[in-house]
Amino acid sequence: MGEAAEMILEGILCEQCGCLIDGEETGYPRLCEDCQKSSNQSHKRNRRGKKESQWLGK
User: Fold this and answer.
1) Measured between alpha carbons, how far is 19 from 12 in angstroms, rounded to an integer?
2) pLDDT tens-place string over residues 6-40
3) Burial level of 27, CB count in 10 A (0-12/13-18/19+)?
4) Which residue has the higher pLDDT, 21 or 54?
5) 3-class secondary-structure state, position 41
6) What are the residues whose beta carbons fall under 8 Å from the beta carbon of 26, sequence distance 6 or more?
7) Between vectors from CA 13 to CA 4 and to CA 6, what angle results, nearest 5°?
């Protein structure tokens, strides 16, 4: 496995965009603050009853 992939699996890099999160090694993959915000917004739109294709922009 590559070094970047290992860093994602250890929680050092964001699993979605690959940016450095905070330098802490948590031992599990996680998202940076920006990716968490965009992920939460997508889930909120989906819960409001819109079709998945609408919130994915298809």
Assistant:
1) 9
2) 999 999 999 999 999 987 899 999 999 999 998 88
3) exposed
4) 21
5) helix
6) 10, 11
7) 35
